[in-house]
Amino acid sequence: MKKRVSCSRIAILTVLFAAVSGVAFPLDFFAEGERLFRENKPSEAAPLLYQASLATGTNPIVFNYLGLCYKMVGKYDDAISAFMKGTSAPGADRKTLFYNAGQVYHVREMYAEAESMYSKAIEIDSSYAPAYLGRANARVKLEGFQKAVDDYQVYLMLNPASWQKDSIRQLVTLLSGTIKEREEAAQRAEAERIATEAEKKAAAERYQKLLDEVSSSLQSVDEASTRSAGSENIEEYDEEGQLE
User: Fold this and answer.
1) In CA terms, which of 88, 192, 228, 232 is 20 to 30 Å from 40?
2) How many Cβ atoms sit within 10 Å of the Cβ of residue 145?
3) What is the per-residue pLDDT across 172-193, written as a single tens digit (0 to 9) for each?
4) Within this chain, do residues 187 and 132 fall inside the same structural domain, yes or no?
Protein backbone atom coordinates (compact mmCIF):
# COMPACT_ATOMS: atom_id res chain seq x y z
CA MET A 1 0.00 0.00 0.00
CA LYS A 2 1.42 3.36 -1.05
CA LYS A 3 1.85 6.11 1.52
CA ARG A 4 0.00 9.37 0.92
CA VAL A 5 2.25 12.32 0.10
CA SER A 6 1.44 15.53 1.97
CA CYS A 7 0.23 18.59 0.06
CA SER A 8 3.25 20.60 1.13
CA ARG A 9 5.61 17.90 -0.15
CA ILE A 10 3.79 17.88 -3.46
CA ALA A 11 4.09 21.66 -3.65
CA ILE A 12 7.80 21.56 -2.90
CA LEU A 13 8.40 18.78 -5.44
CA THR A 14 6.46 20.76 -8.00
CA VAL A 15 8.64 23.82 -7.44
CA LEU A 16 11.84 21.75 -7.67
CA PHE A 17 10.68 20.05 -10.84
CA ALA A 18 9.79 23.38 -12.41
CA ALA A 19 13.20 24.78 -11.49
CA VAL A 20 15.04 21.78 -13.00
CA SER A 21 12.96 21.34 -16.13
CA GLY A 22 12.31 24.99 -16.85
CA VAL A 23 8.58 24.31 -17.03
CA ALA A 24 6.45 26.92 -15.25
CA PHE A 25 3.62 25.52 -13.16
CA PRO A 26 0.93 27.91 -11.93
CA LEU A 27 1.53 27.26 -8.21
CA ASP A 28 -0.04 29.92 -6.02
CA PHE A 29 2.01 29.87 -2.81
CA PHE A 30 -0.38 32.15 -0.99
CA ALA A 31 -3.55 30.27 -1.91
CA GLU A 32 -2.06 26.90 -1.07
CA GLY A 33 -0.48 28.16 2.13
CA GLU A 34 -3.72 29.82 3.21
CA ARG A 35 -5.64 26.60 2.56
CA LEU A 36 -3.25 24.58 4.67
CA PHE A 37 -3.32 27.21 7.41
CA ARG A 38 -7.11 27.06 7.53
CA GLU A 39 -6.90 23.27 7.70
CA ASN A 40 -4.76 23.71 10.85
CA LYS A 41 -1.59 22.44 9.21
CA PRO A 42 0.88 25.17 10.26
CA SER A 43 4.09 23.23 9.66
CA GLU A 44 3.02 22.51 6.08
CA ALA A 45 1.61 25.97 5.45
CA ALA A 46 4.62 27.92 6.76
CA PRO A 47 7.12 27.26 3.91
CA LEU A 48 4.53 28.15 1.28
CA LEU A 49 3.44 31.27 3.08
CA TYR A 50 7.07 32.26 3.50
CA GLN A 51 7.59 31.99 -0.26
CA ALA A 52 4.44 34.05 -0.79
CA SER A 53 5.73 36.71 1.62
CA LEU A 54 8.79 37.23 -0.58
CA ALA A 55 6.74 38.10 -3.65
CA THR A 56 6.20 41.73 -4.57
CA GLY A 57 2.62 42.87 -4.20
CA THR A 58 1.52 39.77 -2.27
CA ASN A 59 -1.57 39.94 -0.09
CA PRO A 60 -0.30 41.53 3.19
CA ILE A 61 -2.37 39.13 5.27
CA VAL A 62 0.27 36.54 4.41
CA PHE A 63 2.46 37.95 7.20
CA ASN A 64 -0.31 37.38 9.71
CA TYR A 65 -0.86 33.81 8.55
CA LEU A 66 2.87 33.12 8.50
CA GLY A 67 3.42 34.54 11.98
CA LEU A 68 0.54 32.52 13.38
CA CYS A 69 1.91 29.35 11.78
CA TYR A 70 5.29 29.93 13.40
CA LYS A 71 3.62 30.63 16.72
CA MET A 72 1.63 27.40 16.53
CA VAL A 73 4.77 25.32 15.97
CA GLY A 74 6.72 27.14 18.68
CA LYS A 75 9.04 29.18 16.44
CA TYR A 76 8.48 32.35 18.41
CA ASP A 77 11.38 34.41 17.08
CA ASP A 78 10.29 33.68 13.51
CA ALA A 79 6.70 34.53 14.43
CA ILE A 80 7.66 37.94 15.81
CA SER A 81 9.88 38.57 12.78
CA ALA A 82 6.98 37.81 10.41
CA PHE A 83 4.55 40.03 12.30
CA MET A 84 6.98 42.94 12.49
CA LYS A 85 7.91 42.65 8.83
CA GLY A 86 4.22 42.72 8.01
CA THR A 87 3.73 46.05 9.77
CA SER A 88 5.74 47.68 6.97
CA ALA A 89 3.80 46.04 4.14
CA PRO A 90 1.42 48.33 2.20
CA GLY A 91 -2.18 47.77 3.17
CA ALA A 92 -1.35 45.53 6.15
CA ASP A 93 -3.63 45.30 9.17
CA ARG A 94 -0.97 46.77 11.43
CA LYS A 95 -2.98 46.77 14.66
CA THR A 96 -3.60 43.01 14.36
CA LEU A 97 0.06 42.35 13.55
CA PHE A 98 1.22 44.32 16.60
CA TYR A 99 -1.41 42.59 18.73
CA ASN A 100 -0.28 39.14 17.57
CA ALA A 101 3.35 40.06 18.23
CA GLY A 102 2.25 41.01 21.75
CA GLN A 103 0.62 37.61 22.13
CA VAL A 104 3.86 35.86 21.21
CA TYR A 105 5.86 37.97 23.66
CA HIS A 106 3.25 37.15 26.31
CA VAL A 107 3.66 33.42 25.70
CA ARG A 108 7.42 33.89 26.10
CA GLU A 109 6.78 35.72 29.40
CA MET A 110 8.38 38.89 28.01
CA TYR A 111 5.67 41.06 29.48
CA ALA A 112 7.27 44.49 29.00
CA GLU A 113 7.68 43.78 25.27
CA ALA A 114 4.13 42.44 25.12
CA GLU A 115 2.81 45.60 26.76
CA SER A 116 4.68 47.69 24.18
CA MET A 117 3.17 45.77 21.26
CA TYR A 118 -0.37 46.04 22.64
CA SER A 119 0.16 49.77 23.13
CA LYS A 120 1.21 50.13 19.49
CA ALA A 121 -1.99 48.37 18.43
CA ILE A 122 -4.03 50.75 20.59
CA GLU A 123 -2.21 53.76 19.13
CA ILE A 124 -3.41 52.65 15.70
CA ASP A 125 -6.97 51.91 16.80
CA SER A 126 -8.06 53.17 20.22
CA SER A 127 -11.25 51.08 20.03
CA TYR A 128 -9.47 47.76 19.45
CA ALA A 129 -10.76 45.85 22.48
CA PRO A 130 -8.49 42.74 22.35
CA ALA A 131 -5.39 44.92 22.72
CA TYR A 132 -6.72 46.42 25.97
CA LEU A 133 -7.35 42.96 27.37
CA GLY A 134 -3.89 41.76 26.33
CA ARG A 135 -2.20 44.82 27.77
CA ALA A 136 -4.15 44.52 31.01
CA ASN A 137 -2.99 40.92 31.41
CA ALA A 138 0.61 41.93 30.71
CA ARG A 139 0.38 44.76 33.24
CA VAL A 140 -0.88 42.37 35.91
CA LYS A 141 2.27 40.31 35.36
CA LEU A 142 4.33 43.50 35.63
CA GLU A 143 2.41 44.41 38.82
CA GLY A 144 1.14 47.62 37.31
CA PHE A 145 -2.21 46.96 38.93
CA GLN A 146 -3.84 50.38 38.56
CA LYS A 147 -3.03 50.55 34.86
CA ALA A 148 -4.28 46.99 34.47
CA VAL A 149 -7.59 47.89 36.13
CA ASP A 150 -7.94 50.88 33.81
CA ASP A 151 -7.40 48.66 30.75
CA TYR A 152 -9.86 46.02 31.98
CA GLN A 153 -12.50 48.69 32.45
CA VAL A 154 -11.93 50.06 28.94
CA TYR A 155 -12.13 46.53 27.55
CA LEU A 156 -15.47 45.90 29.28
CA MET A 157 -16.76 49.22 28.01
CA LEU A 158 -15.78 48.32 24.43
CA ASN A 159 -16.91 44.72 24.72
CA PRO A 160 -19.67 44.55 27.38
CA ALA A 161 -20.93 41.18 26.10
CA SER A 162 -17.57 39.46 26.58
CA TRP A 163 -17.91 35.90 27.86
CA GLN A 164 -15.08 36.73 30.28
CA LYS A 165 -16.83 39.77 31.80
CA ASP A 166 -17.64 38.12 35.14
CA SER A 167 -14.09 36.84 35.62
CA ILE A 168 -12.67 40.22 34.64
CA ARG A 169 -14.92 42.05 37.11
CA GLN A 170 -13.89 39.65 39.85
CA LEU A 171 -10.23 40.23 39.00
CA VAL A 172 -10.76 44.00 38.99
CA THR A 173 -12.24 43.74 42.50
CA LEU A 174 -9.24 41.75 43.72
CA LEU A 175 -6.77 44.12 42.10
CA SER A 176 -8.57 47.14 43.55
CA GLY A 177 -8.27 45.58 47.00
CA THR A 178 -4.56 44.98 46.46
CA ILE A 179 -4.10 48.55 45.27
CA LYS A 180 -5.83 49.86 48.41
CA GLU A 181 -3.67 47.65 50.65
CA ARG A 182 -0.54 48.90 48.92
CA GLU A 183 -1.60 52.52 49.31
CA GLU A 184 -2.31 52.01 53.00
CA ALA A 185 1.02 50.23 53.48
CA ALA A 186 2.78 53.07 51.67
CA GLN A 187 1.06 55.61 53.91
CA ARG A 188 2.10 53.69 57.03
CA ALA A 189 5.65 53.43 55.75
CA GLU A 190 5.71 57.17 55.06
CA ALA A 191 4.34 57.95 58.52
CA GLU A 192 6.97 55.70 60.07
CA ARG A 193 9.66 57.36 57.98
CA ILE A 194 8.54 60.82 59.10
CA ALA A 195 8.41 59.69 62.73
CA THR A 196 11.86 58.14 62.47
CA GLU A 197 13.27 61.28 60.88
CA ALA A 198 11.67 63.41 63.61
CA GLU A 199 13.14 61.18 66.32
CA LYS A 200 16.58 61.32 64.70
CA LYS A 201 16.34 65.11 64.51
CA ALA A 202 15.23 65.35 68.15
CA ALA A 203 18.04 63.02 69.24
CA ALA A 204 20.55 65.11 67.28
CA GLU A 205 19.23 68.29 68.89
CA ARG A 206 19.47 66.71 72.38
CA TYR A 207 23.01 65.60 71.67
CA GLN A 208 24.00 69.04 70.40
CA LYS A 209 22.44 70.70 73.47
CA LEU A 210 24.33 68.35 75.78
CA LEU A 211 27.51 68.96 73.82
CA ASP A 212 27.05 72.73 74.12
CA GLU A 213 26.38 72.45 77.87
CA VAL A 214 29.48 70.32 78.44
CA SER A 215 31.57 72.65 76.31
CA SER A 216 30.27 75.69 78.19
CA SER A 217 30.99 74.00 81.52
CA LEU A 218 34.53 73.17 80.46
CA GLN A 219 35.12 76.77 79.42
CA SER A 220 33.91 78.00 82.85
CA VAL A 221 36.25 75.60 84.63
CA ASP A 222 39.14 76.73 82.43
CA GLU A 223 38.51 80.42 83.17
CA ALA A 224 38.34 79.72 86.91
CA SER A 225 41.64 77.85 86.71
CA THR A 226 43.24 80.77 84.89
CA ARG A 227 42.17 83.27 87.55
CA SER A 228 43.41 80.99 90.32
CA ALA A 229 46.77 80.56 88.65
CA GLY A 230 47.24 84.37 88.38
CA SER A 231 46.57 85.01 92.05
CA GLU A 232 49.34 82.63 93.16
CA ASN A 233 52.02 85.05 91.80
CA ILE A 234 50.94 88.00 94.07
CA GLU A 235 53.04 88.28 97.24
CA GLU A 236 51.19 88.42 100.51
CA TYR A 237 51.22 91.81 102.26
CA ASP A 238 52.63 91.54 105.75
CA GLU A 239 51.72 94.45 107.97
CA GLU A 240 54.35 93.46 110.45
CA GLY A 241 56.97 93.78 107.81
CA GLN A 242 56.22 97.44 107.17
CA LEU A 243 58.94 99.98 107.89
CA GLU A 244 58.34 102.39 110.68
Assistant:
1) 88
2) 19
3) 999 998 988 887 777 777 777 8
4) yes
